[in-house]
Write a structure and sequence with these properties.
The protein has helices spanning about 25-35, 45-55, 70-80, 110-135, 165-185, 210-215, 215-220, and strands spanning about 15, 40-45, 60, 85-90, 140-145, 190, 230-235, 235. The chain has about 240 residues and is an alpha/beta fold. It comes from Lentzea pudingi.
């Protein structure tokens, strides 16, 4: 069963969302604030983050997931604000070509692969490492790692997607999810697949709205019970 059938966390729940000044992160912040969460809106760009936080009634935290000092400073800010219950690792990049196309296998370089992994995978680990001590103090800690259906190795032979780096990075996120869930059994840690959502990440080529895409993120962030170490879409568990 997918997460979300349990009662919502209380209204004092504090949530951090990385990459939340637009797209899925912004919509997730909007929904969780409406549900009573105190939301720290993580944004690499201070001005864009300030505008988004002001619009939503969120707390801005400037956070670049590729920078250790930025992540550490953000952790200090959240700790000073009283702690953390829910961490949503949403920040991610796909790395499209200038005309909006997918970088295919023939044009994938080590440098390009490293750039995507630095944000999509190493960024998740940086943030987890910095915020785990705060989550450990929560009565009901939750981590939601935003993955992709393209991360499914089982499904890789069936889907049509010419790129290498993005699916590989999200498959790595799924492995990180499983291993952290095993290492920290008191923290519920899951990966979610929002679906092919129209955002700047994919040059707005997606077929879903951000409202549809954010559904599984919001549901998993709010559930007080259910599985850990899993991979879910809005329709249920997904194959690895």
């Amino acid at each position: 069963m997918a997460p979300g059938s349990a009662t919502n966390l209380d209204r004092m729940t504090t949530t951090l969302i990385t990459g939340a000044n637009k797209g899925l992160g912004f919509e997730t912040a909007r929904r969780l604030i409406a549900a009573g969460h105190t939301v720290y809106l993580g944004s690499r760009n201070a001005e864009r983050g300030r505008r988004a936080a002001s619009e939503l009634g969120a707390r801005l935290v400037v956070l670049d997931v590729t920078d250790d000092e930025s992540v550490a400073a953000a952790a200090g800010t959240v700790e000073a604000g009283g702690g953390l219950d829910v961490l949503i690792n949403n920040a991610g990049i796909e790395g499209r070509t200038p005309d909006g196309g997918v970088v295919d296998a023939a044009h994938t370089t080590g440098e390009f692969m490293h750039t995507l992994f630095d944000t999509n995978v190493f960024g998740v680990v940086r943030v987890l490492h910095a915020f785990l001590p705060l989550l450990a103090r929560s009565d009901a800690p939750v981590v939601v790692n935003v993955s992709s259906g393209l991360a499914s190795i089982t499904g890789a032979s069936a889907y049509v997607y010419p790129g290498v780096a993005y699916p590989a990075s999200k498959a790595a996120v799924n492995m990180v999810t499983v291993l952290y869930a095993k290492a920290f059994p008191d923290i519920r840690i899951n990966s979610v697949e929002p679906g092919y959502t129209k955002t700047d990440l994919n040059a707005n080529t997606g077929t879903q709205t951000v409202e549809e895409g954010a559904e599984i993120i919001v549901r998993t962030a709010q559930a007080t019970g259910g599985p850990t170490g899993g991979f879910f879409s809005a329709h249920g568990p997904l194959p690895w």
